[in-house]
Amino acid sequence: MKNLIAALFITLMFSTSSAFAHTDHGKISPKAAIQIAAKTTQQLTFKDFGFTVGKLSESWKNLTSDDFKLYAAEANRYVVSANNKSENKKIYFLMTMSGEVLKVNSEAKF
Amino acid sequence: MQQAITLTNSTLLKYTMFSLVFAAITLLTIILPAEYDIDPTGIGHKLGLTVFNNVQTDDALSNSSASSNSTNSKGVTETIEVIVPAGRGVEYKFIMAQYQKLEYEWITDGSALYFDLHGEPEGDTTGYFESYAIATLGEMKGSFTAPFAGSHGWYWKNTSDSPVTVQLIVKGEYSTHSLK
Q1: Are B104 and B79 in contact (CB under 8 A)?
Q2: B61-179 belongs to which homologous superfamily?
Q3: Hey, is the C-beta of B6 within 8 angstroms of any chain A C-beta?
Q4: What pLDDT digit, counting tens, does each position of B122-142 carry?
């Protein structure tokens, strides 16, 4: 019985430490992925970062949070879409689960 | 003088069960509401623990030019462009109360700029300021919490012979912002 209690105590110690630990810094939520795409869109209207879409036109500055959607969430990457209704164009952001933007295309093919 | 403590199996089991119940109550009333916004009992909300997850999704991504003087509340992202003329420096400041927080990210369209991210206390006439970061960079991302009420922001200096535009994206708590 004492061994059982000791084992239970040790298990509790480990489970408690994980409960108090921070969320994994390496993985962002889908909501955070959308916010990163929105911020990157603003930056792409300012400067060409070498992505396929190049520097975006001024109309992309007017996008609201409703224009950004999580297009796909796979094992190790997010794809977020941005819809520019005024130009009837969509672009797609491929990013890692940690939020690093890898590619920005006008097609969701990466 | 040492005192021997003897615990029977039933007592150990009783204390273990008590610990489990206590841990379960803590999990349901404190940890889940605060960390994950899961509040099955409603106690987390009453204790104010769910506020950590109540950051609203941005309603709009607003844009401002450097000449504007606008107000903001927590949760709205603003994009500001500041032109730093060749061979000159400009200062862009946010009026913040003590302990208000600002998240920021800025990039330049050209060369790196010398900058001093600092704060000046409200009403101070001595010229005192406190620097939070000084470097020469082409981009920077971070956040700060105002240590005192006053104006907080950047002094950028352009030592090149062509103007440099800074795009500053901010999100946080402040009343107004403008060129100084």
Answers
A1: no
A2: GOLD domain (2.60.120.680)
A3: no
A4: 999 999 999 999 999 999 999
